[in-house]
Amino acid sequence: MADVARLAGVSAQTVSRVSTGHPGVVGATREQVLAAMKQLGYRPNSAARALKRGEFRTIGVILFTLATTGNSRTVEAIANHAAEEGYAITLIPVASPTQDGLLGAFTRIGELAVDGVIVIMEVHLLDTATVVLPPGAQVVVVDSDAGDRYTVVDTDQADGARQAVRHLLDLGHRTVWHLTGPAGSFASQRRADAWRAILTEAGRPVPEVRHGDWSAESGYRAGLDLAAEPGCTAVFAANDQMALGLLRAFHERGRRVPDEISVVGFDDIPDAASFIPPLTTVHQDFTEVGRLCVQAVLRQIRHEITEPGTSLVPTRLVVRASTAAPPA
């Protein structure tokens, strides 16, 4: 900084103000300092500034996997919105979804020096019914049932499932079969509960649930089974990847979609419109989930207050060519 000040013919304080974006520097002087910085290859020392200010401009993100569509797109949205606020993110993967694994991640987060934490907790912990986070942590939780104790942001999973099932019933289908996700998943559980509730309220038969693991392969295996069910005319898959597997299985077994059987997915991944046929699905607004997470954790960082409660991001049904009235 002293070298830049000498070359630009200004004080070190002026260089500091320019490097931090302080508005109180006239245009010509700012350009002069920036030119000196470029000539000398000067870069502000973020670590030194963090020590001086007591903030690191970094948000830690703890998660159990990046393999699922929801997690990867949520992390992308968090990173983008954090960057807009001048923050970076640090990812901390947890190998096993346990209370000890979660607390170990918070220990590592402390060593890495972050200002706040977002926990993407899409599955139930294996060793406890109730998650416990370190007291005093500035933390927001995604996709959990901990809204009575922590700030939680989630997609309105239940309403999305309700929209999917009602759409199929409104088309005239007698009932709707369901391909659910992993047993420990909060999202899978909420979608299955809503599917069952809508059928029960409508006085329709509730078929036996088929279980998948979010993968297209698990959807394919379930589809081979469902293709042999003569009364199956509509299937609600808990995500688009499993719906893709269903479409392949129905094609191989000669069950035409949507003429003989309708399929609805969940997520609205970018490729859903390019499936054959284009997939009717429930759209999740991952961008808004990420924005709300970042805004919530920044409020805690800046005001040191915790706001227990759950913010639900609305979903919407996107109707394409994979659904139609049942065969006569």
From TrEMBL:
> Keyword set for this entry?
DNA-binding, Transcription, Transcription regulation
Q: What is a single molecular function from GO for this protein? A: DNA binding
Which SMART domains does the entry link to?
HTH_LACI (SM00354)
What superkingdom does the record give?
Answer: Bacteria
Xref: PROSITE patterns:
HTH_LACI_2
Q: Which residues form a coiled coil?
A: none
Is-annotated flag, keyword DNA-binding? Answer: yes
For this protein, the record's InterPro entries field holds:
HTH_LacI, LacI/GalR-like_sensor, Lambda_DNA-bd_dom_sf, Peripla_BP_I
Q: Does the keyword DNA-binding apply?
A: yes
Q: Where is the HTH lacI-type domain?
A: 1-53
Family matches, as PANTHER family: LACI-RELATED TRANSCRIPTIONAL REPRESSOR (PTHR30146), LACTOSE OPERON REPRESSOR (PTHR30146:SF153)
The protein's name in its UniProt record? LacI family DNA-binding transcriptional regulator
Could you tell me which species this protein originates from?
Phytohabitans kaempferiae
Specify the taxonomic lineage.
Bacteria, Bacillati, Actinomycetota, Actinomycetes, Micromonosporales
